[in-house]
Amino acid sequence: MGYNFSAGNDWLIGVGADFSLNNPKAENVSLSNGNGGGQVKVSNRYDIFVQPTMLLGKDAAVYAKLGYSSQKLKLTDTTSSSSTYGVTFTNSSVSGYLVGLGYKAIFNKWWYGFAEANYYSYSAPSSISLTANNTKYTGYTPSSSAYEGIVGIGYKF
């Protein structure tokens, strides 16, 4: 959802927020020595952004997206119970920024289509630990990033 403010003849400044209902599939992760690993699942991603928009006549617009993003990560250990290696954290929230570019085709007063490409960069989880040979190590802090392409249809209220 969002709202656009007029900023001149061919410009709008939008503010918005979105919540991702589509959570990507879990990704496998492993220790560099191959002795352990797990699966990371992303959920509850939301974004708050500013969207400067340049109108291209009456039927089209291009825009940039700049904002804050947050998501939950859950890692589950996939090593066997007899393993002495493992990586653990559960329900860790990470936050970061997003930047994107998009194109909007305006069909009529109410409907539009859009395509956009976004880049997300997140901080490291705050509660992560590594266990190797029954010794627990902390301070292992990998950060993450992602690319996303979206195509959709929108409705203007």
Q: What is the compact description of this entry?
A:
The protein has 157 residues and is mainly beta. It is 0% helix and 69% strand.
Describe the protein in words.
This protein has 157 residues and is mainly beta. The protein has one domain (2-155). The protein has no helices and 10 strands. The protein has strands at 2-6, 11-19, 27-30, 37-55, 60-77, 86-106, 111-122, 129-132, 135-138, 144-155. Strands 1, 2, 3, 4, 5, 6, 7, 8, 9 and 10 form a 10-stranded antiparallel β-sheet that branches. The radius of gyration is 20 Å and the shape is elongated. The termini are close together. The relative contact order is 0.18. The mean pLDDT is 80.
Write the layout of secondary structure elements.
Elements: E1 2-6, E2 11-19, E3 27-30, E4 37-55, E5 60-77, E6 86-106, E7 111-122, E8 129-132, E9 135-138, E10 144-155
Antiparallel strand pairs: 1-2, 2-4, 3-4, 4-5, 5-6, 6-7, 6-8, 7-10, 8-9
Q: SS-based structural class?
A: mainly beta
Number of domains: 1
How many beta-strand runs?
10
Distance between the termini: 10 Å
Beta strand % = over 45%
Which H/E pattern describes the elements? EEEEEEEEEE
Share of residues in helices = under 10%
| Form type | elongated
- What would you report as the Rg, rounded to the nearest angstrom? 20 Å
Features:
single chain, 157 residues, mainly beta
